[in-house]
Amino acid sequence: MTNLISYDGEQQVFHLKNQQISYLLAVEDFDLVSHLYFGKAVENYHGQRKYPRVDRGFSGNLAGVEDRRYSQDTLLREYSMAGEGDYRTPAAKIVQADGSYALNFKFTGFEMFPGKPNLIGLPQAYVEADSEAETLVITSFDEVSQLELANYYTIYQDRPVIARSTQLRNLSNHSAVINKLASLQLDFAAEEFSVISLPGAHNKERQVQKEAIGYGIKKFGSRRGSTSHHMNNFIALEKGAADEFQGEVFGFNLVYSGNHSFEIERDQIDQLRLVAGINEEDFAWELNAGETFQTPEVLMVYSDQGLNKMSQAYHDLLTNRVARGKYRNAERSILVNNWEATYFDFTEEKLLPIVDAAAEVGIEMFVLDDGWYGQRDADNSSLGDWVVDKRKFPKGLNHFADYVHKKGLQFGLWMEPEMISIDSDLYREHPDYLMAYPGRTPAPSRSQHLLDLGRKEVRDNVFHQLSAIFDEGHVDYVKWDMNRSLSEVFSQQLAPSNQGEAFHRYILGLYELLENLVTTYPDILWEGCSGGGGRFDSGILHYMPQSWTSDNTDAVERLKIQYGTSLVYPPSAFTSHVSDIPNHQTGRKVSLETRGNAAMSSTFGYELDLTKLTKAEKQAVAEQVSLYKDIRQTVQFGQFARLKNPFTSNECVWQFIAQDKKEVLVMAFKILNQGQEPFSLLKLTGLDPQKNYQAANGEIYGGDELMNLGFYLPQQTEDFSSWLYRFKLVD
Ligand code: GLA
Questions:
Q1: How far apart are CA 104 and CA 9, in angstroms?
Q2: CATH H-level, domain 5-44+70-321: superfamily
Q3: All CATH 2.60.40.1180 domain ranges in the chain, comma separated
C-alpha cells in the first residue's frame, strides 16, 4: 500500500497526498460532503480550516435543521444537486419518476484501494502497476429516490495529478432521467482567479484566451457532438499573477470526445465553483432500475510554477498513461501526405514520382489521402464505400502499397469511416444508417452526413469494410478523419423519449469501434483528424497516439496553434507538415527553413508535391529530414517548455530537453520585421546550473548562464525568420 490517501475518522477528513499535491475533503454535520483544499502538498492537516458559520440572507438551510448559520448555498462542496437549495451551478440534475428533481445526498461510506479502476467503455488515464496510484470512492445516498452517488478520486504517486469521475446508480424500482451528471465539481475559497481556455475555429484551433473571472456564470463548451475546433475541453485556473513560469495553476482536461462543458461561477461571497463534464444541453439519459451511469473522467493537474509545469505534467501523463499501444513511446515516422500536393486529382501513375522523390530525400512513409475509394473526385460522394477506385488504381491498392514498400517507405491511408455520402452505395443500400430526424431532410455539411455509430449493425458494417483492407496487411498507418459537426442527432434504435441519449451513444459507439480496431490491428499507427484539429482531445489519444493539429499549414499561423495545443497535449501527439508556398490557406510565403523549424517542433512530415521542388530545395528537404531524424527523440519525448508567447509578442520560442538531459533544442521565431527592433534576450529553463552546454558552433555556455544571462537572438532581416539551436551537455 502506497499510503497516498488517509482518513481521519475523528474529524471525518480524507487527505489525498503525494510529494507535490494535497486534496482534502470532509464529511460535515448532517453528512454533507464538503471540499476543503486542493493545491500544494501539506504534510498534516490538523483540522483547523473550519468553514465559518454565518446566517446569510436568502441562503436557506438543510431540511429539518434549525441552524440558520449552516447553509448548503455557501459551503464549499464536493458535489451539488439541482433543487436542494444550493443556488450555485449544480453538478447534477436527476428527474425522478414523480417529476421532482430535489435530491439530498448524504454521505454513507467510502472505499480506498490501490490502483485505478477501469471505466468500462470510456477512454481514461491508467496505471501499469497498482502501486502507481490510489483511489478513494465516496458514496452518498438519497433515501427518497434510492439513488446512490459515487465520486471517484485517483491520486497518482509521482504526478501532480488527480483523476475524478462520477457514477450514479439507481437502486429504486423506477427509472430516473439524468439531465446532468458532471464528472467533477470543484469549489475554491475566495481568491482572485483568471481562466485560460482554448477557443478557435477550423484553421485556427486552440488560441490561448485569458480572462479575469467576475461575478456570474461563464461556460466554455461544445454542442457539436465532438470536442470541436471552437473550444477545446480544457481550462486552466490561474491564481493571482501566475504566468508561464510562476504562480499557482490548476488544469482540467476532460477525457472525452463529445459535447462538453466547463462552467465557472463566482458566487455572492467570491468563492469559485467549477463544474465540468458532458454538456447538459442535448443530454437526457434514462437510468433504469438497477443501472449505473459512468461519466468520463477529468484529469486535474496542479502546478506551483506556472503553466509550463502544468503542461509538462499533462505531457508526461498523456504520453505515458493515456496513450497506448506499440507507438506510445516509439519514434514516429516522417511522412509525406499527398493532400495539398494533388487534392482529389491523382492516379497511381501520378503518385509514383512523389513516392520516388520521398524515398530520395529520406522520408519514411507515404500517406495516400482522400480520393482513393468509391468514385471520389470531389468531396460530395462515396463516403461509406471503402473500396479502391479502379479508375485511379487499375491494379488495385495493394499494387501501389507494394511499390511504396519496395521503395523502403511505409504505406499510410486516409479514411473517414464515421460518414456517409448520399451519393454512395452504402446509402443506396442502407439509407437508414444515415442519422436524420424522421420526415425531415438532413442538413449536409461539406456535402456529407453522419452514420449512426450508436447502432451495432452500423459499427459492424464499418468494421468489416475496414478489416477487408487491413487484413491484406499493407497498411502501416491510418489517418482517421471526421469532417463535420454533428446535427440531426437522432437514432432509429432509440424510443422518442430516449433521443437525449443519442449524442453520448454516438461517442460510446465510436469508442467501441476504435477499441476493436486498434486491438485487432495493433501494428497500425493511428492518427486522428477532424478537419485538422476538430477532435483533438485526450479521449481520442487513448486510441490514436497522434492527431493532425490543423488544416492550416501556414508556419506563422501554426506557431499560435501549436503553442495553444502544447498547453495540454505533448508534441509527440500533434503532427505538423511543411507545405507549399504561397500557403494554400493564407497565401503567405515563408522560407523553407522557417516552415521546417515550425513543423520540426512536433511530429513531423511534408504535405507538398516533392517533384516540383528545385534541386536546391530538394537538398534542403533532405537536410531537414536528416536533422529531424537526429533530434526527433528529443522533440517527441523530451521535456517541452514555452519560452516566448506569440499571442502577446512578435516572437515565439520553445525548447526541448532530451530525456537523458544530454541535448537541449531551441526553436525561435520572429514574426514580423520592424524598424528599430528591440534586442530580444532569450533565457532557457530547466537546465543543470552546474553543467556546461556546447552550442553547434562550438561556443560553451554554463547552464546557469543560459538560464540567467541568456543570449540575444540575431537581428532579423526579413519577416518570419527563425533559428534552431542545439546545445549538447558537456560531460
Ligand atoms: C480534412 C483533413 C485534411 C484532408 C482532407 C481530405 O480536411 O484535415 O488533411 O485529409 O480532410 O478530404
A1: 23
A2: alpha-galactosidase from lactobacil brevis (2.70.98.60)
A3: 651-730
The top-level CATH class assigned to 651-730 is mainly beta
CATH of region 335-420+458-486+524-633: 3.20.20.70
- Residue from 414, 574, 608 whose mutation best tests the ligand 1 pocket (most atoms within 8 A of CB): 414
Sequence ranges of the chain with CATH classification 2.70.98.60: 5-44+70-321
Q: How far apart are CA 662 and CA 295, in angstroms?
A: 42
Bridge partners, 209 (sequence order): 197
Q: Rounded mean pLDDT of 49-69?
A: 94
- Retrieve residue 557's grid coordinates: 499561423
Over residues 579-607, the mean pLDDT reads 98
What would the mean pLDDT of 590-604 be, rounded to a whole number?
Answer: 98
Q: Can you give the pLDDT at residue 144? A: 95
pLDDT 10s digits, 195-214 = 999 999 999 999 999 999 99
List, by residue range, all CATH 3.20.20.70 domains of the chain.
Answer: 335-420+458-486+524-633
In this prediction, residue 731 carries a pLDDT of: 83
Q: Exposed, middle or buried: residue 165 (CB in 10 Å: 0-12, 13-18, 19+)? A: buried
Catalytic residue at 660? no
State in Å: Cα 233 to ligand 1 middle: 22
- Cα of 605 vs centre of ligand 1, distance in Å, is 15
**pTM (two decimals):** 0.98
Instruction: List, for residues 118-150, the tens digit of each pLDDT value.
Output: 999 999 999 999 999 999 999 999 999 999 999
Q: Is the pLDDT of residue 349 over 60?
A: yes
Cα distances (Å, whole numbers) of residue 227 to 72, 208, 381, 538: 33, 16, 25, 10
**Number of Cβ atoms within 10 Å of the Cβ of 53:** 14
Distance of CA 53 from the midpoint of ligand 1 (Å): 58
Pocket test of ligand 1: the residue of 340, 370, 376, 416 to mutate, having most ligand atoms within 8 Å of its CB, is 370
Give backbone dihedrals phi and psi of 659, rounded to 5 degrees, phi first. -55, -40
Q: In a 3-state reduction of DSSP, which class is residue 400?
A: helix
Distance CA 691, CA 711 (A): 17
316 phi/psi in degrees, rounded to 5: -65, -45
Q: What is the mean pLDDT of the chain?
A: 97
How remote is the CA of residue 576 from the centroid of ligand 1, in Å?
A: 14
Q: Cell for 91?
A: 453538478
Write down the H helix ranges in 577-614: 592-599
Query: Measuring from each residue's beta carbon to the nearest atom of ligand 1, which residues come in under 6 Å?
Result: 339, 369-370, 379, 414, 481, 483, 529, 531-532, 548, 551
Confidence of residue 717 (pLDDT cuts 50, 70, 90): confident
Going by pLDDT thresholds of 50, 70 and 90, the confidence category of residue 253 is very high
**Residue whose CA is closest, atom 8 of ligand 1?**
531
Q: What radius of gyration do the chain's Cα atoms show?
A: 27
Distance CA 567, CA 244 (A): 10
Question: Is 130 noted as a catalytic residue in this protein?
Answer: no
For residue 52, is the peptide bond before it cis, meaning its omega torsion is within 30 degrees of 0?
A: no
